[in-house]
Amino acid sequence: MSIEEGIDHRVDEDGIVHVVFDRPGDKVNLLTPAILREIAQLLDHLRGRADVRGLVFESAKPGVFLAGMDVEQIAAVEDAYRASEAARFGQAVFQRIADLPVPTACAIAGTCLGGGTELALACTFRVAADDPRVRIGLPEVQLGIIPGFGGTQRLPRLVGLASALDLILTGRRLDAARAARIGLVDKVVPLPYLSREVVALLRAAAEDPRGTLRSLRPRRSLGAALLESVPLLRRILLIRARRTTAARVRAADYPAPFRALDAVDAAFSTPSGQGFDVEARLVGELVPTRTSKNLIWLFKSQTALKKAVDSGAAPRKVRRIAVLGAGIMGGGISQIAADRDLPVRLKDIRYEALLSALSTAGGIWRERIRKGQIAPREVGQRMALIAPTLDDRGLALADLVVEAVVEDLAVKQKVLAAAEERIGERAVFASNTSSIPITEIAAKALRPERVVGLHFFNPVHRMPLVEVIAGQRSSPEAMATVHRFAVDLGKTPVIVRDSPGFLVNRVLMPYLNEAIRLLSDGVRIEVVDAAATSFGMPMGPFALLDQVGLDTAHHVAHVLHAAFGTRIGPTTPTLGSLIAAERLGAKNGRGFYVYRNGRRAGEDGKVYALAHAPARRDLPVETLQERLVLAMVNEAALCLEEGVGREPRDVDVAMVLGTGFPAFRGGLLRHADDLGIAVVVDRLSRLADAQGERFRPARILREMVREQRKFYPA
Prior knowledge:
The chain is α/β, with parallel strands linked by helices. It has 3 domains: 2-288, 2-enoyl-CoA Hydratase, Chain A, domain 1, CATH 3.90.226.10; 321-498, Rossmann fold (3-Layer(aba) Sandwich); 505-644 and 676-707, N-(1-d-carboxylethyl)-l-norvaline Dehydrogenase, domain 2 (Orthogonal Bundle), CATH 1.10.1040.
């Protein structure tokens, strides 16, 4: 019987009702108000039937159970009352599942997130497939909201307070094995036997009125039980969690994790009905906020950027890759490729570099073992996928060759020429350059149409962004291939036009330059960095320069200076002076700050003499933020004007994912819209008069004021 598009149900010979999710025309299943209404009607219909002995929720889509609530539905809600009522409706539907007089279960064979996990929590049992596509979690805080269909109430009671807080406050996703270890999943079975095992479990439960099957769940330790039953201990844990959260984000910018703590507290400190009511009320407060709207917009934008490139060419399937250069970037690229079960041929001219790259990759996996994210046996399996070599043997088998050698045009051209003698005619050659135009790298290539840019960010395993760059002669197939490859690695690709510095580094460099100018004006290093972090940046510009490496930043600055002049390139000798004094940043323990055991230990007063900085000068925080941020806004507008970025969305996603621009602001250009384009142009003009022509507003900004346009129409 068909209930509604996206959900069907049938009753088998054992009296087990199979409710099957299958959203038409989409790769994923999502919850909508219509689907929730159909579930409610079905449950009402089944309640009085004597022939029904159990109910199981399943999915007809491979690799997906339920990916949560449709974010378009959440984004459309503009007021607190509607948001709270929507949450209460979802809670009521899932409570009907919990109140059924027969046992219920979820057969989880893939992604189970948000509302999908909350539906599973309302069931008697949760059975997951032993499949790498299984991911279970509550990622709502990443959208600026909290679980609203009972997740903050049911999860702590099921898995314990500490485990629940870890999942709810981070949005972490668990595989089947880890979900079983904390008691979120009752059983893990091979994928081909999932449906059979769930039905068998429901049959056994139907004949087990005392519920003894539930005793199979892992028992929580005495300490965990005390945390939940003793109010004082529970309060201490919640206070610590609040402090940890406050050290990571500010409540004014990201209120969701703090409201989640309030809701979880209510799960233990109030009667059940009141706890659900608290959860719904807090959802109502969060959904209409600017933070939630911006985070949802960013989520939707990232999803859109991962869709296939509309280039008229199909991507080539990448089954194995070669990485040329075993430095930090080459080693990182090899590690994430092996993490996705891709065989990697890692080539370098130095044996020591290969050993270092393998050690770095192993270290990343060992850290994941420590966090319980992978099993020890998996490290050996993944390490075996990386084949180190000092020669060119095996390159002919690669579908994609990623070049990650030193940032030098002549060296990159030499590496490309040597590779073209070995690789297949259809193999794509991707340069991981951060600033050199792809057209210049491919200028002497035999097959320039196969050469593209694929710029990863450091550290590769953590940074979600890659820039995909087309040279003047790059083919649509080559572009589609590297775009698909980036998505398969779990990255968000942003396509940018070939230009020195591409998009992210070009927009970021005026920000870094302005910080150095402020230092030259006498503003203290820590004051500048504090102004940036209070704006919402994850670290200040001087801390960032230290992390990037002063030598690397100096090189990129000179490349951009050659292309764009003093507006964007180095205008003070500060970086050169520090490099001459052997200050390279965090990598050698001395930069703008001093580092001990890899940790920043404070600023170094000697820097002021090296930078020839005058006596201390204090400026208002707002002035510092204005100079730092508006320098980026103006450069981003110029990038749009020149077509380096295709549209404002691409610029904003790239800056959030590539530089840590505060996500709660929605991105650089959405922030400019919030300020008002007329206000931005006025402030830039005033800064240009006071500080120099680098602040003169871009033509596109002036046109937008005349035409009363925004980057994002309402």
